[in-house]
Design brief:
Bound molecules: N-[(cyclopropylamino)(oxo)acetyl]-beta-D-glucopyranosylamine
CATH superfamily of the largest domain: Glycogen Phosphorylase B
Strand content: 15-25%
CATH architecture of the largest domain: 3-Layer(aba) Sandwich
CATH class of the largest domain: Alpha Beta
Structural class: alpha/beta
Number of domains: 2
Oligomer: single chain
Amino acid sequence: VEASIPEPQRDAWRKFTPKGFTTSEEFEKEAVRHIETTLARSLYNCDEVAAYGGTALAFRDRLILDWNKTQQTQTFTDQKRVYYLSLEFLMGRALDNAMLNVGQKDSATKGLGDLGFRMEDIISQEHDAALGNGGLGRLAACFLDSMASLNYPAWGYGLRYRYGIFKQEIIDGYQVEVPDYWLDFNPWEFARHDITVDVQFYGHVNRWQDDEGKQHTSWEGGETVLAVAFDVPASIEADRLVPGYQTPTCNNLRLWGSKAASGEFDFQKFNSGEYEASVADQQRAETISAVLYPNDNLERGKELRLKQQYFWCAASLYDIVRRFKKTKRSWKEFPNQVAIQLNDTHPTLAIPELQRILVDLEGLEWDEAWDIVSKAFGYTNHTVLPEALEKWSVPLLQHLLPRHLQIIYDINLNFLQFVERNFPKDRDMLGRVSIIEESNPKMVRMAYLALIGSHKVNGVAELHSDLIKTTIFKDFVKIYGPDKFTNVTNGITPRRWLHQANPRLSALIASKLGGHEFLKDLTLLSKLESFVDDKEFRKEFREIKYANKVRLAKHIKEHNGVTVNPAALFDVQVKRIHEYKRQQLNIFGVIHRYLQIKSLSAEDRKKLAPRVSIFGGKAAPGYWMAKTVIHLINKVGDVVNNDPDVGDLLKVIFLEDYNVSKAEIITPASDISEHISTAGTEASGTSNMKFCLNGGLIIGTCDGANIEITREIGEENIFLFGNLAEDVEDLRHAHLYNHYELEPKLAKVFDEIHKGRFGDAGAFSALLNGIVEHGDYYLVSDDFASYVQTQELIDEAYKDTESWTTKAILTVARMGFFSSDRCIDEYAESIWNIEPLVQKKDDEA
Ligand code: 8GP
C-alpha cells in the first residue's frame, strides 16, 4: 500500500496515536479543546449546543480509533464480508449510544457537571438521524449494532438524505408536516470527497461485434451524477460493558450523497446572464439524495424515487466491486468474498447492475455472470400487503435505464424458459411468474426479480415466512422448491432498547445476574426467573417502572399540557399510523370506555381502573385515512381530558412527532402496549419486543412476532384476542357478499361520533363508512367485541399488582430469543455464510 508510513518511522507515529480518555478530567480536557478550537466557541459563549458539540467530538475521536483499526484489520484479513443494502437506516441519536459503548458515560457526566451542564440536557441537543420511516429502517439500525457487536465484517450502504422523515406537528388536532433538516451540525459523519462514483442515467445502448465476432453491448448514459461517500462509524460493539480480550469492532455505514458531476455551475450560462439555468444542473443532481420518501408500506412509483434507487445501487456496487478487484481474485470467487443482503425490494436494481458490470464491462459470458450474481444476493421480504409491493413501469425504466431494462428482459426470458421446461403443462404459470406484468403500461415486478436473482429469500417472522410461501410467492416454491425460502424472525438490540433506554432496569438485572453479560447474550435473562419471588427484586422492579412512568408523565405535561397520574395504567400504541395496524380499533375502544364511564354513577366510577391511552405515530402525508385517525384521536382527547366527570379515570394523549429518541422515553414507561393489526398483515413488528423487554405486557392479535412472543413468554403473560389469519379471507368475502351487522357496542360508538360528540362528524365519515359500507377490510367490527372484552380483563389483571409484577418479570426473563444478535447469527449462518472476525487486543496488525 503506497500510502503507508515506512517501517522505520512507525514508532515515531505510534508514540502519538491518541489513546482516548478514561477519567472525567481527561474528558473535560478533550471537550473544552474541541469547543474552543474545532467549534471556535469560548468560555463566554458556550451554550448547550456547543457543549453537545464538544462532548460528541470527544467521543467521536474515541470511536474513530476503533473504527480505523477495524477497517484496517478487515482489509488485511480479507475474509468474506456482508453488505447490507437498505434505503432506510433509522439510527436515532448517536451520543448516548457512543458513551455507553465506549464505557465512559460516567466520567463524561461528571465532567459536564464540572463545566456546569447536565447530561440529559446535552444528550437532548442531538438531532435524531431519522433516515427511515418505521420498522424496516429501525431493523437496519439494530442489525448494524448486532453485526458490530458480534464482530462480523459488515458494511451498511444507504443514502445520505438531506431531509429525513418529516417532523410532525399537531395543529388544531391535525398533522402538519415540517421538513427535517438535520445536517447543520453532524459530527458523526466523515465526508470522503475523494471517494466518488460517476452514476449514469438515460442515454442509449450500443451493440457491436469485435474482430473475433464477439458481441458487445455498452450503455452510454445521457446524464452523469456524482455519488460522494459519507462514512458513519456504525456502533462499536458492547465489549467494554463486558470487559473481554477483544478490541471492539466498529463497522462502517456508507451513505451516498449526490452532486453535479462537473462539480461546478455552468459559467457560460452565468456569463450570458442566465443565472438560474447556470445552477440548474447542480440542483437537479443534488435533488436525488435530497429527501426520504415518507411512505411506510406503500409504493407510489415516482421517477425520482427510481433515480434514488439506481443512484444508490450503482454507487454501492461500484464500491463493492472496486474493493473485490483490489484482491486480484478471479470472478468465480466473488460470492465467496461478498454477500449482499437486499433490505426489501428497494435495492433490487443491484441485481441487473451487477450482471451489467460482469457482462458489459468485465466481458464475462451471460451464464457465468448470472451464476455469480445469483449466488451473491439474498432478499428479505417485509410485507405481503399488495399496495406495498414495488412495481416500476416499463416505459419509465426504458427511459431512465435502457440497458437495465434489456437485462431484466433477458433474465426473465431465461427464467421463463426454465419454468416452461419444468412445467410444460401449466401454461398459465408463465404469466403468473413473469417478471413483467402484462398490464398497460407493462410493469416490472421487483419482488419477483429480487427472488429470481437471490439464492435465499426470507420473511421476518414465522407466520409471515409461511404466508409468503402460500400467497405472493406460491408458484416460486413449486419452481425452486422450499429450500430457497427461509425465516429469520426479527429482533432488537438490547444495548439501545434496554441498557440505554432503561439504565436502571439494566443495572438491576446486572446486579442479579452478576454483570452485564446479558447485553451480549440475551438468553442469560432466563436466570431472572429464579428471582421472581424475591421481594426486594420485585419492589425495585416496580419502582423502576413507576419512575419511568413519572418521566413520561412529565414529558406529557410539558408537551401536551395534560396532567396524567403515573399510578394509572399506561396503555401505549406508538407506530406508523396505518389502517392495517388499526389505531382506529384502539380509539373506538377508548370511546367505548368513555361512554361507559359516563353511564356510571359516581359511586360505581370509583371501582374503575384509571387509564392513560397514549398514541403516537406519523401518517404518510398523502394518506388521508391515516390522517383522519390522528384527527379523531386528538378530538377524543379534547373531549375526554376536559370532562370533569372523568378525572383520572381516562386520559387520551397523542404524542407529537414520534421518533427513535421519543421511543426511548415511551417504551420503558408502558404497562400495556397495543400490537393489534388484522391477523396476517403485520409481517413481524419489533416494538412489541421492545416493550416486553422493558417489562410491559402486550395486548395483541395472533399476528407477526406476537405469535412467537407468546410461545416464549407463555399464554398466561400476554393478552391475545381477535380472529386468526386463516379466517381473514373468508370474513372479508362474507362482508362483501352477505349482509353484515355492525358489532352493537361499536354501533353505539359510531352513533356518538355521528351525533357530533367529538366535533364535526363529517370529518370522520370516510373512516366510519369504510367499516359500515365498504366491507370493513381490516375487520374492525369483527374483532371489536373480543378487543373490548380483553381490555376489561386487563383492567382486572392490573388491579392485582402482585400477579401483574410476576407476569412482567417473567416476560423480561423470557425475551432472550428476540435479540437482533440472534437474527444476525442466523443470517450469517444460513444466508451469508460468513464468520466473525475477532481482533485480539495484542494484535497490532
Ligand atoms: C415492516 C413490517 O411492516 C413490520 O411488521 C416489520 O417488523 C418491519 O418491516 C421489519 O421487518 N415493513 C415495512 O416497513 C415495509 O414493508 N416497508 C416498505 C417496503 C414497503
